[in-house]
Design goal:
alpha+beta, 6-stranded antiparallel sheet, 3-stranded antiparallel sheet, 6 helices, 29% helix
Length: 213
């Protein structure tokens, strides 16, 4: 009985090294399969810095030193920039808007000022306009504008200058605002009015009063 137990123990001891040789070694830093990047190197192609905000057509950059006091709302063709604290407190907080307006124009002066033009890949054209608030947008109980709101206000021109077309759209600052550009645009509308025989109501709605007889 003792001999049998001895043989079983010895057989178990001899078997362990043999089995150890069959266990595959851990794989470290395995090579990519089919040219794929390792998971830790894969990043999204559209990842933008925290201070860059985009609509479907264009983007703007907020200066890094004020990004924490700003709230930005985006839609297909528009970006609105707010002073976060004032907005949350119910005082509006709007500093500026950037809006891509197609033809026919959907704005007529007032708080909107044209700053350039944008073109799409299919030849579609847009006016890029800057919108501003018409009323005080911070707590009117305060004697003056909050300091961080003033920082945003001082940075407004830099934000407007950062407008950039994306997703196949190209933006040209100041385009369509020079004399020759404006003349061509106005002339084209007059020609269209004559060719399409616009009536007085149509001329009035298109703000071409000089053609009304």
């Amino acid at each position: 009985m003792k001999k049998r137990l001895f043989y079983l123990v010895m057989a178990g001891i001899l078997t362990v090294p043999m089995l150890a040789g069959c266990i595959p070694a851990p794989v470290e830093n395995a090579a990519p399969v089919n040219g794929e990047k390792p998971a830790d190197e894969m990043t999204g192609e559209d990842v933008k810095p925290d201070n860059v905000f985009a609509s479907d057509m264009f983007e703007i950059t907020i200066p890094e030193d004020i990004v924490d006091v700003v709230e930005v709302e985006t839609s297909h063709d528009r970006i609105d920039v707010y002073h976060k604290e004032s907005k949350e407190a119910g005082f509006g907080g709007l500093e500026l808007s950037v809006w891509a307006v197609g033809v026919p124009r959907e704005y007529a002066g007032g708080p909107y000022v044209k700053i350039g033009q944008m073109n799409g890949g299919s030849g579609d054209e847009y006016d890029i306009v800057r919108g501003s608030a018409t009323e005080i947008q911070w707590d009117y109980n305060l004697a003056e504008m909050p300091a961080d709101f003033k920082k945003l206000d001082d940075a407004a021109d830099a934000i407007i200058a950062s407008v950039k077309g994306i997703n196949g759209y190209t933006y040209e600052e100041g385009a369509g605002m020079r004399g020759e550009d404006l003349y061509g645009d106005v002339l084209a509308r007059y020609v269209q009015a004559v060719n399409e025989e616009w009536d007085a109501n149509k001329l009035e709605s298109e703000n071409i009063r000089s053609l009304i007889t």
